[in-house]
Amino acid sequence: MxxxxxxxxxxxxxxxxxxxxxxxxxxxxxxxxxHPQMKVYKFVYFGExxxxxxxxxxxxxxxxxxxxxxxxxxxxxxIGIHRMSDSTDEQRRKVESDLILGPYKPACxx
Length: 110
What we know:
Strand content: 25-35%
Mean pLDDT: 91
Radius of gyration: 13 Å
Low-confidence stretches: none
CATH class: Alpha Beta
Strand order of the largest sheet: 3-6-4-5
Distance between the termini: 28 Å
Number of domains: 1
CATH topology: GIY-YIG endonuclease
Largest sheet: 4 strands, antiparallel
Shape: globular
Structural class: alpha+beta
Number of strands: 6
């Protein structure tokens, strides 16, 4: 399953507690399910990284508490990534900024 926000496609949302961050540059989306039995996701946060495996993901992230508060529990957090292997910091920040400034600003991107 691909989730698209604007022109950006995110790979399958994985439960964040089961996710193994790849050694990869990417823009990522933190999501939650408003209704656990449905395959509908709400975006909670957009971010970017030059190497997802070096971020101390995910509990060490400075917005982790906000994510959990929005989702209701860590078990309702999901992550999708948009791989950008050979991207520059500037390219990833541009994609991240465009996502945040889109028609809906995620609750934890303040």
